[in-house]
Every structure is written in C-alpha cells, then in structure tokens.
Amino acid sequence: MYKILRLLICAVVVCLTQAVQAQNFSNSPYSRYGLGDLNENQGSIRTNGMAGAGVSAGNNFQANTANPALLYYNTTTVFDIGLAGQLRTAKNSTLSRRDGNANLSYLTLGVPLSKRWSSAISLRPYSTVNYEITQSARLGSNPQAMEYRYYTGEGGITELNFAHGVRIAEGLGIGASASYLFGTITKESASLIQDTSLVNSGQEIVVFSERTRYSDVMFRAGASYRKKITDKWSLGAGTVYSLSSDINTTRKSAYERRTLSDVVSEQNILPDSASGSSRVPASIRAGLSLDNGNNFTVAAEYYAQKWSDFRNFNETRELGDSYMMALGAEYTPNPNSVSSYLSRVTYRAGVKYGNSPYIINGEQLKDMAVTWGMTFPIGQASMYDYYQMNTAFSLGRRGTIANGLIQENYFDFSIGFTINSRWFLKRRLE
Questions:
Q1: What is the pTM for the complete model shown?
Q2: pLDDT at 2
Q3: Which residue, among 191, 195, 193, has the nearest Cα to 206 in the 3D structure?
C-alpha cells in the first residue's frame, strides 16, 4: 500500500504542474467567446461514456464527482486520473482545417470519512481557449494593398474542487462542493498591410493584446435518492444546482509592434489595468436512472445554464441560454465471471443533444454527439485493492456551415485509471 501511496503522490505533483502550465485542447474558433470552451462534464470517464448522464447514477468503484451527494457510495479510497484528447475539423462552405491535441482531463482523490460521509478533491479544466483566425481583404483606397487581420487566443480557467457527500437516510444523500477557479486567458488581435507598389518597405504587425486573469470561488449543492420499485429494479433521482458567481477579474492591455518573425520592436503597456468581476450564471442538472443493483444502469439527464446573464467586466456578451439532454447506459455481462475476462468488462454508450451558449450571426449553435466507452479490470481484485482502466469516446458535431458559420466535427477520446484502496483498515495479528 505504501508503494501505491508514493506513486499517487508523484502522479498528483506531476499532474498538478502540467494542469497549471498548459490545458489547451484543439483549435476552436468558438472558444473566442465568453470564457472559452466549457468543460460540461463534472464527472469521470465513466460519465463521459454515458454522454455525461451521471447525477443520478451512483457507482461503488468510480469517483462520483458529477453529484457530490453520490460520494457516499465510495466506501474505499478512490484515486482517479484521466487524460483527454480531441481531433477536430472546422469547416465553412469553402475551407476546412483539421487540428488535434491532448492533455490532462481530471484528477480526483476521494476518501470515506465514515460509513455515511465521504469527501473528494478534484482538479480539472473549467474552460479552455485556443483559436487562430485569419481574415484578409483589399483596401478600398488602394487595390494593390492587402490588409490581413489575425485573432489568436490561448489559456483557460482551472477548477480545484472540494466536495462532501452525506447519506442522511436510507437511499437519500445530500452534498455540497466549493470550487476555486483560477487561470489566465490571453487574446490578441493584429493587423498587417502589404502594399506591392512599395519597394523595400519595412513590414510590421500592430498587435493589441489583452491578458485577463480570473480567480474566485463558486459553490454547488446536490441531492440524490434511490428506491427499490420491484424486487430487481431500483429508481434513482439526482440534481445539482450551481450558484451564480462573480469572479474577480483583472485585465492588462498593451499595444505592440512586431516584426514578421514575431519579435517585439515596440511595446506600449496601457497605464492602468482594469479590475472588476465576471458573472458566471447559475446552472442546474437533473436526472433519473434505473438499475438492477448489479450489472445494468440506464440514465437520462437534463442540464441548463442561463448564459444570457453572463457578464465580463459588466459588458454584455453575445451568449445565449444553453441546455443539454443526455441518455446513457452501462452493462457488465457478468461482474463475477472467472472464466471470461470480457464478461467482467463494463460497456457504455449514450447520445446527447442541445444548444451551446454561442450565438453567431443571430443563430444559436447546436451540439450533438454519440458516445461509447469501456472499463477494463486490471489484475485480480482483493479486499484491499481494485484497479481499473477506463476509456470513453465521443463523435459529434457543433455548429453549421449555413449562414456563413463554421461547423466543427469532433472526435473526443479519454483514457484513465482508477485505484480503489482500503487505507484505514485495521489489521489483526493472529
């Protein structure tokens, strides 16, 4: 057990460092808006494979961070780490671009404090920004001159979450969590004019740069209830409400002149940095699940957030109220099989559909995907330790090429490992 503990500590240090230093995923022009691409999955790779449906479906061997009220299902110490990647193709009516990346998805450590009370700490991206946009046009006053405009952004917000779940009656649990959000987003807009009629003219790019830092606390509350409806089947219900939060925000701006090789030749930092707040609106998740308590679970979930209330430095942004509907299921043929390994593998699938918060040219973008995944047992389980490898995949589409917009076709994949270990077991010597 102590060897495992040392490995866990090393992994935590490495992953914390990597998560703070870099969390960008593949290039997405829509991450330019609001706080960037939002990480809507507050659960694990398990919930990813079920299209994100997780607030009503508890699990004894996976960290139930989607709903803090489900944490009491974890009766052993759970360490869960996940890596995620994306392959994304963005296209309009004439052009297309393919991009991809991978990074830390989440890191979770759950510890049971008593038979009725468990807690968890997790680290995951809250949002990511990564885009590169180029526009070009001829100057009306000089047909031989071309104007190029460049828009780039990178960075994101990281969430460090502390959660507690308590079982207050048979089948009934409540939970709450506090998250510390922190991170920096850098956005730049640049312009370059090229005139072929001028010989040996020096070419410089004029850049306006904004570096915005976010840091504050937000809170969530959850509840869950599960009751037997027949001898074989149980019905579960769960909900999570995230309170709206005003995040402390500081922005520094600068004008720069750069050469074509990106060397800064002149910089003019604006004398005063702007300090204020950014309003993250409230959200709610609610779901129902049906399970046989052994090897099959099906869950449905609805998620909504009022992004029309989003404010950045008290400025109104073009965002709309978002929602997502998800349906997912998981099945293990025979969890106790000795002769067949594949019978002990858990198989998952799901579908989701909804509105993203992005409104472009008066049209709110749709987001839809199909998901699937598997959990593979590793080694032989014992009363002290149990190991799993988790995978999840998603194939989806966001946006449209109609009305001059950009459509994103994406393939997301996740892989991670879960360790269940009894840290506080009293042993007796006979």
A1: 0.87
A2: 42
A3: 191
Q: What whole-number percentage of the chain has pLDDT above 70?
A: 83
CA angle 163, 169, 171 (to 5 degrees): 80
Q: Rounded to whole angstroms, how far apart are CA atoms 205 and 149?
A: 10
Structure tokens at 323: 């929602």
CA torsion, ordered 92, 97, 101, 105, to nearest 10 deg = 10
Give the pLDDT of residue 166. Answer: 96
- C-alpha–C-alpha distance, residues 13 and 123, integer Å: 12
> Which is nearest to 158 in space by CA: 359, 323, 20?
20
Q: What is the pLDDT of residues 120-147, one digit of tens each?
A: 999 999 999 999 888 777 766 666 677 7
Instruction: Please classify residue 81 by burial: count the beta carbons closer than 10 Å to its beta carbon, then call 0-12 exposed, 13-18 middle and 19+ buried.
Output: buried
Give the separation between CA 75 and CA 304, rounded to whole angstroms: 31
Instruction: Tell me, rounded to whole angstroms, the distance of Cα 384 from its chain centroid.
Output: 32
pLDDT digits (tens, 9 = 90+) for 174-226: 999 999 999 999 998 888 877 666 554 556 788 888 899 999 999 999 999 99
Domain annotation for the chain: domains and CATH numbers: 2-421 (2.40.160.60)
Cα three-residue angle 212-215-216, rounded to 5 degrees: 145
Closest by CA to 87, choosing from 100, 104, 68, is 100
Nearest CA to 36 among 169, 104, 142, 126? 126
The three-class DSSP label of residue 46 is helix
What residue type is 165 in one-letter code?
A: G
Q: Which residues contact 305 (CB under 8 A, 6 or more apart)?
A: 242, 281, 282, 283, 284, 321, 322, 323, 357
The tokens of 133 are what?
């946009």
Contact of 224 with 58, CB cutoff 8 Å: yes
Which tokens in the block code for residue 324? 């997502």
pLDDT tens-digit readout, 72-94: 998 889 999 999 999 999 888 88
- The three-state secondary structure class of 45 is helix
DSSP state letters, 249-272: EEEEEEEEEEETT--EEEEEE-SS
Q: How confident is the model at residue 13 (pLDDT cuts 50, 70, 90)?
A: very low
